[in-house]
Amino acid sequence: MEFVRRFFTIPEQSFFLFGPRGTGKSTWLQAQLPDSLYLDLLEPRLHRSLVARPERLREVLAGSPRAPTVVIDEIQRAPELLSVVHAVLEGPSPPRFVLTGSSARKLRRAEVNLLGGRALHLTLHPFMAAELPEFNLQRALRIGLVPLVVDSADPQGTLDAYASLYIDQEVRAEGLTRDVGAFARFLEAISFSHGGQLNVAAIARECEVRRKTVGAYVDILEDLLMAFRLPVFRKRAKRATVARDRLYLFDAGVFRSLRPTGPLDRPGEIEGQALEGLVAQHLRAWTAYAGDHSSVYFWRTRAGTEVDFVVYGQTGFHAFEIKSARHVHASDLRGLRAFRADYPEADGVLLYRGTERLKIDGIWCLPVEDFLQRMVPTRGLLDLL
Predict the structure, then answer these.
(1) Which of 102, 247, 306, 342 lies 20 to 30 angstroms, CA to CA, from 57?
(2) How far apart, in Å, are the Cα atoms of 373 and each of 109, 219, 243, 351?
(3) Contact indicator for 107, 121 with CB cutoff of 8 Å
């Protein structure tokens, strides 16, 4: 595949750039910052020398005095370097530092100073549909949008190996859990919670491990950026809402690769979960890149009325319901009607697999593939209507 532009905007100041393995951080930065001094901590000799003597980083910088930007790739492998980076930033005419990583866990566990607010904390997400020269919804639901997978000559094979890559290179190498086999079983079990409310006790029973262990495993998933939670929307609540967060794996293809299937599984149900997750990852990327401090929530009352996603921020207030069906039925709008009764300021949007753009009782019903292709962080979510 040809080089794909990303909606991520490189800031002028120093920043951390986190993102799951395979989201293209290194490749993209090398293309965007060709004049930078690039230090790859996955290179064994460089890693050994800087871990043994972090102060050597000053010597490396002195050897490239005209480099406007210094990229340190996989900074979590040498958190000791952050003290040196901090000192350099406090000196005269420092370069811009770009510090990439696939996990902030080791940095926090080492209790290092994450540059005392001198660097932004940003995230590179999987591809958005509008970033790709060609977007095919069915393919995205099958293999996801992780650049490593999308660019592969064997996307399905790469996707199937993705979880193993994390288990071997992240979990085992970083010593995040002693029982890698139990964590692998947990990954399979957590796939059934994709898009659902997180029930740690139920997952613990399924994996036959302690509840505390499952809680720690969920934390590991979030630290590795493989999963994220959505809180329930409670602002000015008029009805009692549920307490548990929803949990999503970060990419629809990764979800499909982890989710076991059998004779009792309905393909339509799994595809519906994948579609909901695909929209969720797009909304997260849009809010991250738009920079308007919007947040993504879900809404569910204790009576069971729900809306899949609520986006609330400076540029708007939107409620989304996701349906994998190709036709809109009156019952599909029940949750959005209830939400708009409580929050008339919100725009109601149903995204579905059909082709017609409709407006029913003030609620937009839009083809999901077209909507995803039009999602651009420089515009509002409904600007093109």
Answers:
(1) 102
(2) 39, 32, 33, 13
(3) no
Domain extents for the chain? 15-123, 129-374
- Taking the whole predicted model, whether its pTM rises above 0.85 is answered as yes
**Residues 180-189 pLDDT 10s:** 778 888 988 9
- Indicate the burial class of 54 (C-beta count within 10 angstroms; 0-12, 13-18, 19 or more): middle
Q: 212-227, pLDDT tens digit by residue?
A: 999 989 988 898 889 9
